Amino acid sequence: MKYKKIKPNKELEPFIHFYWELKGNELESQWERVFPDGCAGVLMNLGNTCLTDNGSVSIDFGKTYVVGAMNSFKDSFIGSDTHLFGVCLKPATFANFYSYASQNELTNDTVEFEKSNSFNVDKIVDNPFNYFDLFFFTKNKKQKQPTTISY
């Protein structure tokens, strides 16, 4: 399994811990235990369907999911063709980007987002971490003044 973390643009650092990418190992599939960190997250699957929430939730290709803050571990099955991209938000920052169920309703759950809140699969494929910066920058409700994100 390959896992990497990327820092967000500095304008987003008060809200986002990091972006991440996870790819399954071509030689073996495995269950991966995820421990609680008090942070909500958002993820998209660009690989084959995989399982999370101890096998009770399927993460399908091209779909975006919100993962509520956890107070217990959960196991996810990482197959050889799993390919996930995600965002680890800082505590209590979810509402800066989304008008959605309160975080206490999402605790320990993984829920598929409706299309209006979802990532664009075509844009995420080309340059995922730049796309995340632009996506979250435009959704940030706490942004005080226009700022240009440059790379």
Q: Report the count of strand segments.
A: 10
Assembly context of the chains? single chain
Class computed from helices, strands and strand pairing: alpha+beta
CATH topology: Jelly Rolls
Low-pLDDT runs of 5+ residues are none
Task: Produce the secondary structure layout.
Blueprint: E1 2-6, E2 16-23, E3 30-34, E4 41-45, E5 50-52, E6 57-59, E7 64-67, E8 74-78, E9 83-89, H1 103-106, E10 110-112, H2 121-126, H3 128-139
Antiparallel strand pairs: 1-2, 2-9, 3-8, 4-7, 4-9, 5-6, 7-10
Structural summary, described in words:
By secondary structure, the chain is an alpha+beta fold. The chain has one domain: Jelly Rolls. 15% of the residues lie in helices and 32% in strands. The chain has 3 helices and 10 strands; from the N terminus they run βββββββββαβαα. The strands form 3 sheets. Strands 1-2-9-4-7-10 form a 6-stranded antiparallel β-sheet, covered by helices on one side. Strands 3-8 form a two-stranded antiparallel sheet. β5 and β6 form a beta hairpin. The longest helix has 12 residues, at 128-139.
Summed up:
With about 150 residues, the chain is of the alpha+beta class. Helices cover about 15% and strands about 30% of the residues.
Notable traits:
globular; 32% strand; six-stranded antiparallel beta sheet; Jelly Rolls; 151 residues; two-stranded antiparallel sheet; alpha+beta
